[in-house]
From TrEMBL:
UniProt-listed PANTHER family: HTH-TYPE TRANSCRIPTIONAL REGULATOR LRHA-RELATED, TRANSCRIPTIONAL REGULATOR
Functional description taken from the UniProt entry: Transcriptional regulator of the ttuABCDE tartrate utilization operon.
MF term (GO), any: DNA binding
Keywords annotated in UniProt: DNA-binding, Transcription, Transcription regulation
Gene3D superfamilies: Periplasmic binding protein-like II (3.40.190.10), Winged helix-like DNA-binding domain superfamily/Winged helix DNA-binding domain (1.10.10.10)
Residue stretches making up the HTH lysR-type domain: 4-61
Domain of life of the source: Bacteria
Family note: Belongs to the LysR transcriptional regulatory family.
Xref: SUPFAM superfamilies: Periplasmic binding protein-like II (SSF53850), Winged helix' DNA-binding domain (SSF46785)
Name assigned to this protein: HTH-type transcriptional regulator TtuA
Pfam family, any one: LysR_substrate
Length: 284
């Protein structure tokens, strides 16, 4: 079965239309020699001379005149096939951990949309553990989470540092348990904070346990409690108070992106995603 090379057919049609190897090479961003090689390869494959070339003229041969219409249809079908692939809207399921999402997220999504307008981005926000489980089940194409276990795969986007934050007016009486505002028990930051307090033999009590992130932020900003936050995401107006109250340092971790996408278009979208996150996340 004879198969056709798209580049060779394009070279033939362009030479036929312009009646010049030199102008065809200029239009195709190639060289006259390369165009000649492609045409010779096509003629050898078909077993027919397609172009009659003399020092003064370039014209279709009798066989070339028969082949030219089919060649144009072949190229048009090739262009339609590519247009169908690149114009079709695709869905991209992206998970972003709630404790990772910061002010860079709008920029991140805008960059991804500008890179590929045919991409329908479906964003899901939850805890890192829930999103990683969803990714492992195939429910997400990519997930940006905080590393919370010994799993070492995924692309590291950057470090994540933590600190103890409180309102400037927060008061802690010596001998009383430290008032700690925290989210639900499944929260990874809560686990980091409480383990550090227990290891330092510092008594603590939780307030606003199980509340929303906005409730925790409100309690800390109002001076009612202290909480551990990512240094990127500490509430405005709060200050780091670990030295002030003799609190233990909190271990750092990493922000990681997971994905199993392998096609070139998706991989390029992932590179855009990672670059946007690294460029626009505030310094810790």
């Amino acid at each position: 079965m004879t198969t056709l090379d798209v580049d060779a057919v394009q070279a033939f049609v362009t030479v036929a239309d312009l009646q010049s190897f030199t102008r065809a090479a200029e239009l195709l961003g190639s060289t006259q020699g390369a165009i000649s090689v492609k045409l010779k390869r096509l003629e050898d494959r078909l077993g027919q001379r397609l172009i009659e070339r003399t020092p003064r003229s370039v014209r279709l041969s009798a066989q070339g005149a028969v082949f030219i219409d089919g060649a144009r249809e072949f190229l048009a079908a090739h262009d339609r096939a590519l247009a169908g692939v690149f114009s079709a809207r695709r869905h991209f399921g992206l998970g972003i951990a709630a404790h990772v999402a910061g002010p860079e997220v709008p920029t991140l999504l805008a960059r991804l949309n500008a890179h590929d307008p045919g991409l329908t981005i479906e964003v899901r926000m939850d805890t890192s553990r829930v999103l990683l489980d969803a990714f492992d089940r195939g429910e997400l194409d990519a997930a940006i989470i905080r590393r919370e276990d010994d799993r070492r795969d995924g692309e590291v986007l950057g470090p994540e540092h933590f600190g103890w934050f409180a309102a400037p007016q927060f008061a802690h009486r010596q001998g009383e348990p430290l008032r700690l505002a925290a989210l639900a028990p499944a929260c990874g930051v809560r686990d980091i904070a409480t383990r550090a307090l227990d290891a330092g033999s510092i008594p603590w009590t939780e307030v606003f346990l199980g509340g929303t992130s906005s409730m925790v932020t409100a309690a800390v900003s109002a001076g009612l409690a202290i909480s551990a936050f990512s240094c990127r995401l500490a509430p405005p107006g709060t200050v780091e108070v670990s030295h002030r109250f003799g609190l233990p340092p909190l271990p750092s971790t990493e922000i990681v992106m997971f994905s199993t996408l392998t096609d070139a278009r998706s991989r390029e979208a992932l590179r855009t995603l990672a670059t946007a996150f690294r460029e626009h996340r505030p310094s810790s």
